[in-house]
Amino acid sequence: MGLQYLTGRALFALCLVSLVCSDGSHENISFLGEEQHLFTHLMEGYEKSIRPVKKSSDTLGVSFGITLVSIANVDFKTNHFEIVIWLKQMWQDFQLSWTPEDYNGIGNIVIPHDRIWQPDIMLFNAYKLDYMDKAFPAYVMSSGHTMWIPHVRATAICNFDLTHFPYDTQVCELKFGSWTYNDNQVNLTHIDYPRVDTSSFLSHPEWNITETTAKKNIKKYPCCPELYGDITYTITIKRLTPLYTRAFATPCVLLALLIPLMFLVPVESKQKTNLGIGIFVCLSVLLLMFEMTLPSAFSALPKIAMFYVGAMVLVTVCLIVTTITSSIWYHSPSTPMPDCMKRFFVDCCGRIVCVSTTSHYLMNTAEVSMTHIHDGGSDGDGADKVQMMHMSRGQGVAAEWRALTLVIDRLLFIVFLAISIVLSVAIMG
Question: What is the 3-state secondary structure (H, E, C) of the chain?
């Protein structure tokens, strides 16, 4: 008796659960049926190739905007600016409106975008425009308002200015508009006026967005009498410079500051030429790296490239001057120095740069005297005294020419140091 009672209670519970589940499934199937019925109703007789207006003279308003997601690439060699964006497009399609009460309160529906009309908005200055998800559907409300936001990878053609590389700021324009409809047929308006939506932007390791603007333009093209509208977005980006400063600017500035030091190296050490050639080779390597990084053709030559070339010119001038001064030092002319040259360089400029002619003269005289004594000469021999006097005079002339080389070296050190500092401040600024 007890077993029959328990069996009856179990059967009753199973029937109750089955009834509840059956009612829920029926409601779900009913809802899906109504949504499917709504979709069938909207697509019945719908023509996606026709602009959704009641009269051909009516203007269809399309709200348009872009959301910048990331900067994919900035290619200076091809002038390509590649970004990932969301194209926000909203319009009203009267053919896609319905009364929610007739379909169990359904107020919106998702429809594949290729089943309905959509504005043919293109990026006019595009090199390539790839829709990353072509199956992205459109969101349609009961009032007919339609919203379609595809995910796009756009590559625009921009004119970059590398004059201030690597401390440059680039400006790129994105020109969007209808490819076939004029402004009286499709009127584009801003969604995020007057800028680009950067709320979803992912930071880039090399570039930072400093400013964005949006502007509606009306233009008449030679092909057609109608006016065509477009929205031009301007994106201003600034380069983050630490990497390029360490790779290009800092080494070049340091090498430029080494150039004046060539004139402080003593002539008798014979290391001036080696130092100059070493600096020239380093500048050549840096210039080669610079050429590999940037395009070979520029609308305006970058300042840093001019700095490289200027530094190499300075090194070349230093090597030429070093060759001349070394020749004077080791092969001093026997002809006395002209008085005007002596007064200006040796006397006047020599005092300014602390070069004493007398000290060199005494040093060289002592050297000659010691050489003569070592050769067995006698101080009491009159002929030797005369010969000694002539040698001293000749050594004095040589000392003046050697003093001239020192004066020239120190003057050029000051001049080249000033030039290097000015160039360094200009390139780092």
Answer: CHHHHHHHHHHHHHHHHHHHHHHHHHHHHHHHHHHHHHHHHHHCCCCCCCCCCCCCCCCEEEEEEEEEEEEEEEECCCCEEEEEEEEEEEEECHHHCCCHHHHCCCCEEEECHHHCCCCCEEECCEEEEEECCCCCCEEEECCCEEEECCEEEEEEECCCCCCCCCCCEEEEEEEEEECCCCCCCEEEEECCCCCCECCCCCCCCCEEEEEEEEEEEEEECCCCCCEEEEEEEEEEEEECCHHHHHHHHHHHHHHHHHCHHHHHCCHHHCCHHHHHHHHHHHHHHHHHHHHHHCCCCCCCCCHHHHHHHHHHHHHHHHHHHHHHHHHHHHCCCCCCCCHHHHHHHHHHHHHHCCCCHHHHHHHHHHHHHHHHHHCCCCCCCHHHHHHHHHHHHHHHHHHHHHHHHHHHHHHHHHHHHHHHHHHHHHHHC
